[in-house]
Design brief:
alpha+beta, Rossmann fold, SH3 type barrels, nine-stranded antiparallel beta sheet, 20 strands, transferase, MnmA-like
């Protein structure tokens, strides 16, 4: 099988490529150049797409004896991921750029080009498991729960899953991957994991957004509509935030208040008690199914709203193209723009972007 190995420059993708070679596949390595911004190219950047990462990927490919290329996807990355990130914040939503990158770049743009060039599959270092069944290919959680990345892969559809290869899915731990990399003589064996948003290398998301969204003073109100403070830019706040509110009017009960809602049209931030963060229902219409779609309009599932959150039992219903999920227990601090991934045990059913939420605590409370 001809396999295109996406090599980020990290240990996971290097070992995944090595295992694809060991499996007898005809493997070609490729590193995606996703940004031309100087900040993502300098030493010390905390993302996953620096010039140093490209060099690490090349060294790994040389060690494995496979061809290696760098593909410039920076324009599409800007259009599909960065511009979307800014637009979502302007709309008062909290986006997940890693989900968009997987959806639009790594398993859309990359896979499209790979198929055009005659490759059968794209191999990545994600920790997730693929299972072939009579109903088609399914996406499942990885063996190592601590490293499981099925959540961020929940955006993949049946056609994309048919061309995916995740060699690390059954690996019991990251320590095993690092030991294997060292044994293979890969220089990335002990390279630290990437973190933060790759196109904001200094980690200052608030400052980065201020330059692009702008700064405009607006009111901070409580659930009754009374103004309790002011802010210098709604984009700097996220649902569930407690620190940095600088409210001039204390709550009647003296308890701390948290951000409950962002209203971009009026540039308003809504705050309230921690109890009001409890979410009784979430819904969204940007839906995709990871393999076969549910057999019925109503079904039981587990819902996960963050990459490292615990799944919560729930009931889901498809109504006029919208998925409405009611968790068995309230979810905590859900923001529109987040991704909800639905599971059946270890199997990923699908995902949707959260468009609206309903608090478990009435406004009168």
């Amino acid at each position: 099988m001809r396999v295109l190995a996406a090599m980020s420059g990290g240990v996971d993708s290097a070992v995944a490529a090595a295992r694809a070679v060991d499996a007898g596949h005809d493997v070609v390595g490729v590193h995606l150049a996703l940004s031309r911004a100087g900040g993502t190219l300098r030493t010390g950047s905390r993302g996953c797409c620096t010039i140093e990462d490209a060099m690490d990927a090349r060294r790994a490919a040389d060690r494995l004896g496979i061809p290696f290329y760098v593909w410039d996807f920076s324009e599409r990355f800007r259009d599909e991921v960065i511009d979307d990130f800014v637009a979502e914040y302007r709309a008062g939503r909290t986006p997940n750029p890693c989900m968009r990158c997987n959806e639009k770049i790594k398993f859309a743009a990359l896979l499209e080009r790979a198929i055009e060039l005659g490759f059968d599959a794209v191999c990545t270092g994600h920790y997730a498991t693929l299972v072939d069944t009579p109903h088609g290919r399914e996406l499942h959680r990885a063996s190592d729960a601590a490293k499981d990345q099925s959540y961020v892969l929940g955006v993949l559809n049946a056609e994309q899953l048919a061309h995916c290869l995740f060699p690390l899915g059954s690996t019991p731990s990251k320590a095993v991957v690092r030991a294997e990399a060292e044994e293979r003589g890969l220089t990335v064996a002990h390279k630290p994991d990437s973190h933060d948003i790759c196109f904001i290398p200094d980690g200052d998301t608030k400052g980065w957004l201020a330059e692009r969204v702008g700064v405009a003073e607006g009111p901070i109100i409580d659930r009754s509509g009374a103004q309790v403070g002011t802010h210098d830019g709604a984009h700097a706040y996220t649902v569930g935030q407690r620190r940095g509110l600088a409210l001039g009017t204390p709550a009647p009960d003296g308890k701390p208040r948290f951000v409950l809602e962002i209203r971009p049209v009026t540039n308003t931030v809504v705050v309230g008690p921690k109890e009001a963060l409890a979410t009784a229902e979430i819904a969204g219409s940007r839906v995709s199914w990871a393999g076969r779609a549910p057999d019925a309009a109503s079904f039981a599932c587990d819902v996960q709203i963050r990459a490292h959150a615990d799944p919560v039992p729930a009931g889901a219903e498809i109504v006029d193209g919208e998925v409405v999920v009611t968790p068995a227990e309230p979810l905590d601090g859900v923001a529109t723009g987040q991704t909800a991934v639905l599971y059946d045990g270890t199997r990923v059913i699908g995902q949707f972007t959260i468009d609206r939420t309903r608090s478990a605590v009435p406004v009168e409370a």
